[in-house]
Amino acid sequence: VQLQASGGGLVQAGGSLRLSCAASGRTLSSYAMGWFRQAPGKEREFVAAISWSGGSTFVAVSPQGRFTISRDNAKGTVYLQMNSLKPEDTAVYYCATKEGSKYGSSQTISSVSPSGMDYWGKGTQVTVSS
Questions:
Q1: How far, in Å, CA of 130 to CA of 2, rounded?
Q2: Distances from the Cα of 123 to the Cαs of 35, 53, 69, 96, 107, in angstroms?
Q3: Among 2, 47, 67, 89, which residue carries the largest CB count within 10 Å?
Q4: What average pLDDT score do residues 38-63 get?
């Protein structure tokens, strides 16, 4: 499975971006998915997760109320809508999943540390200027 995240860029504080994650080599439609981010000098951290069906989602405390995760299984794509962006949201954003998340809830991703993910996309840079 190869994942590719896209949609990052430079935005002013208060702005919005929508990230997309698509897969090649295998459909993602049966797997719970997650978004993670890594800021310079910091460890990779969990951002949001979504169940395989899209019926359950979970967003980390920091971006809660500003970020929304969704998916379109017909297109094999997972999205992260980011609103009211803050400078502290600046990071490389990655999508990821794990083998054990097939037909899984969002918890199959959110309850596992980033090191537990099996497949990572090439990240996309998000830079929020103040």
A1: 34
A2: 10, 24, 16, 10, 22
A3: 47
A4: 96
